[in-house]
Give the backbone structure.
Amino acid sequence: MNSAIRYYIITAIIALLLILCLVLRGKKGMYGKNYNLAVFNTVGSVSLWGRDEAVLDKAFQDIMFELQGLHNVINAYDAKSELHRLNDTASKEPFVCSDALWNIIIASREAFALTEGAFDPTVGAVMRLWGFHKKKESLPNQEEITAALEKVGLNKVQFDDNAHSAHFPVEGMALDFGGIAKGYAIDIAKTILDKYGIDMYMIDLGGNLLLSEKVPGGEDAFKVSIRDPNDKNAVARVLRLKGCAVATSGNYERSRIIQGRKIGHIMDPATGTPVTQFASVTAITKRGVHSDVFSTAVFVRGRPLAERLRQAVPGTDFVILE
Ligand code: ADP
Ligand code: MG
């Protein structure tokens, strides 16, 4: 056999082996794995599907690591966190932020602009007034609310985009990422999944969902239930969704009772009072960060804002329960 023929035969055999490998790989089963995580003072689950279990495990480890790292930076209740230090000192002098903190500040400023100020991460001062950081026995009066509102307004914070610093104009101002952190975090998780080439997943971080475009089990969509705000064991609506993020804001989970009045945990930054107009607002968007802030913002500002956001950001929709 001359060397040219031998060369062709060997090449053909290698090509056949390669094709066989690919076919077998294609036939090998898909793994579906479910992981639990606890970050941002809430619980979450990450469901991943793929052919290589080790890759799924590695991706989840990376997600945990990144989200825990972010939590350590922005956990305002932890005196050692960077956000705590910012809140403590930024009224005295500009506070220079790490990249991790600066990036979520940028996302918050965009969210503030898009939602016309209905999402405002400086609502902390009024949250405190309504007993959310420390228990309160009596309702605040109008004078106290007006005084607290002096310390509210992301547009009042002086940001230096070159130095990445924030400076509060008054003492007592504070940033609180409670209305954006979970949505922001699932977008971080998505970049990790993209890096590993994982394209079938469902992430649930304290009710903030991220659903892949591909759906497991030959189904054509993920089923997402919206809880009945008035009956925690009942389902109000079932949505069929894929390739999107979903978040719901409601008053049914984290409210306080002061002097017999139920106080919801979402504040109107314009009036300094808790919002009660809807039972729940579910936002469906392309990005996690948008579903988180839009659900909070529309809960505050209502249907006209929902309509404007639907127009402004393609892929946005809402389910509002009265
Ligand atoms: P949950 O955290 O229960 O999922 P949301 O995503 O709607 O609910 O966020 C509510 C949290 O956001 C509150 O606990 C508070 O920390 C903060 N918050 C309340 N009102 C506002 C607001 N108008 N803008 C931004 N953040 C807010
Ligand atoms: Mg939200």
The chain has nine helices and 16 strands. The domain at 14-321 is CATH 3.10.520.10 (T-fold).
